[in-house]
Amino acid sequence: MHFLLTNDDGIHAPGLAALAAAVRMLPDARVTIVAPEEERSMCGHRVTTREQLIVEQLDDGRYGVSGTPADCVRVALFALGVKPDFVISGVNAGGNLGQDLPVSGTVAAAREAAFHGLPAVALSHYLIKDLHVDWARASAWCAEILIELMKNSLGDGEFWNVNLPHLPPGEILLPERVLNLPSRAPIGVSYSCKSDSMERMLLQYNASYAERPAPEGSDVAVCFGGRVSVSRLSIL
After folding, report:
1. Is residue 21 classed exposed, middle or buried when 0-12, 13-18 and 19+ CB atoms within 10 A define those classes?
2. Considering the domain boundaries, does residue 201 fall inside one?
3. Structural domain containing residue 18
């Protein structure tokens, strides 16, 4: 199978390297990487239509693009002539759950692939502050998860969204996978405010990701509870 890989953390991100390593564990896998040249987190499904995109081939089958994750999928398909059997976006350094979904560049890349009739998955790794990320472990988990997902057919316009939990060092076995729906509960947001010399309001966004609501059975509750959250999403 031919896999197209991308992300929103940038082409040099450790999560993308972990993903590439995971895919290469699969039998007879071919890999093409087309990813943003720099971090494009939280850009949503933005695409570049009024500016030139710069594409640089870094080595065989690996390209850096000056645009967004959604741009990268389009560039791969329609400028580079890549014909993938499966598109994978990630592994994102941070969860993409519930209200994150329309904001996430990682998820947007998988959604863009689904628009073009390609099976796709967005992979993210929830992060707990001050806890080391074991990317080698994440890579091994992703390889197992991908084997499982490829056994399940997706409907027209569907794609997978998967979030790995952040477990302490030493936890080796792949946690339980739970099929669920994204949380509808919004993240609690506040703004600190001060004025400048022109009497304008200067607002600073504040929110605690770890303290967000986690409705029972939702993707947030599953991932925060130490299990792998798996959601079947649709472009519509």
Report:
1. middle
2. no
3. 2-184+212-234
Tokens representing residue 70 in the block: 């959604």
Burial class (CB within 10 angstroms; exposed 0-12, middle 13-18, buried 19+) of 59: exposed
Residue 189's identity, in one-letter code, is V
**Which residues of the chain have a pLDDT value below 70?**
none
pLDDT of residue 200: 94
Percentage of residues in the chain with pLDDT exceeding 90? 96
Number of domains in the chain: 1
pLDDT of residue 214: 97
Q: How far lies 228's CA from each of 13, 63, 93, 173, in Å?
A: 22, 30, 15, 12
190 exposure class (CB count in 10 Å sphere: 0-12, 13-18, 19+)? exposed
pLDDT tens readout for residues 132-189: 999 999 999 999 999 999 999 999 999 999 999 999 988 889 999 999 999 999 999 9
